[in-house]
């Protein structure tokens, strides 16, 4: 298996622009998680899905952030409009509830810079 | 106050040293405890997994959980330069998939 795939790996954009981050989870996994990592705040859970349905979006910082999972193999995290304080590394992770550990497998991340 | 506290380091040790990494937490409902390792510019990877209290050993790595003190530890014996990474503790409640992470401790092992 290729693991969790994220695109793009790097994104540099201007303040006010729309940013879309993409994620393909591991096939067969039924949970998908979006995280944001910064030096100051560490790894924060933004939202997670179970069987394509959003379960907990309490970590989404504000209405500028939205996430969708139209099918089991694809999810997007959108920021509109983007702001410099959104600069961070965004990780997608997936897991399978039927496993012993419910281990979350992380993608390589998208490094976002908002100028 | 954060639910999970972890010293960010960096922690610098010579090759061969025993390393101790720690986290404290406030939520007594946490039942599952994990340590993830994150190399620079990579995603975190699960290193150790423990349920409830006790010890678990895997090669050079030992994870300990003391629920009475709300304190977990990761010990690395005979540390190697390849162990240089950021180590994040994580924990969750039974029946919940949501993980709460510490901020991570950066470890540097010098040859």
Architecture blueprint of SSEs:
The complex is a heterodimer of chains A (115) and B (111).
Chain A: E1 5-7, E2 10-13, E3 19-24, E4 31-38, E5 42-50, E6 53-56, E7 65-71, E8 74-79, E9 88-95, E10 105-106, E11 110-114
Parallel strand pairs in A: 2-11
Antiparallel strand pairs in A: 1-3, 3-8, 4-5, 4-9, 5-6, 7-8, 9-10, 9-11
Chain B: E1 4-6, E2 11-14, E3 19-25, E4 30-38, E5 45-51, E6 54-58, E7 61-66, E8 71-76, E9 85-93, E10 100-101, E11 105-110
Parallel strand pairs in B: 2-11
Antiparallel strand pairs in B: 1-3, 3-8, 4-5, 4-9, 6-7, 7-8, 9-10, 9-11
What does this structure look like?
The complex is a heterodimer of chains A (115) and B (111). With 115 residues, chain A is mainly β. In chain A, a hairpin with a 2-residue loop joins strand 5 and strand 6. The mean pLDDT of chain B is 94. Chain B has 111 residues and is mainly β. Classes of the chains: A mainly beta (115), B mainly beta (111). Chains A and B meet through strand 5 and strand 9 of A and strand 5 and strand 10 of B.
């Amino acid at each position: 298996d290729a693991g969790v795939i994220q695109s793009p790996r790097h994104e540099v954009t201007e303040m006010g622009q729309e940013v879309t981050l993409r994620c393909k989870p591991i096939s067969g996994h039924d949970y998908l998680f979006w995280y944001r990592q910064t030096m100051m705040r560490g790894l924060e859970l933004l939202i997670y899905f179970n069987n394509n349905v959003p379960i907990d979006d309490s970590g989404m910082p504000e209405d500028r952030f939205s996430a969708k999972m139209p099918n089991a193999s694809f999810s997007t995290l959108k920021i509109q409009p983007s702001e410099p304080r959104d600069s961070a590394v965004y990780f997608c992770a997936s897991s399978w509830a039927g496993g012993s550990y419910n281990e979350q497998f992380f993608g390589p991340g998208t490094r976002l810079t908002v100028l | 106050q954060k639910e999970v506290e972890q010293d960010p380091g960096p922690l610098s040790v010579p090759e061969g040293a025993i390393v101790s990494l720690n986290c404290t937490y406030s939520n007594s409902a946490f039942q599952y405890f994990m340590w993830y390792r994150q190399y620079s510019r990579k995603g975190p990877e699960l290193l150790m997994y423990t349920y409830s209290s006790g010890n678990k050993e895997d090669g050079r790595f030992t994870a300990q959980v003391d629920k009475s003190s709300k304190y977990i530890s990761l010990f690395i014996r005979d540390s190697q330069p390849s162990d240089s990474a950021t180590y994040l503790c994580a924990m969750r409640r039974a029946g919940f998939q949501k993980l709460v992470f510490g901020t991570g401790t950066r470890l540097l092992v010098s040859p």
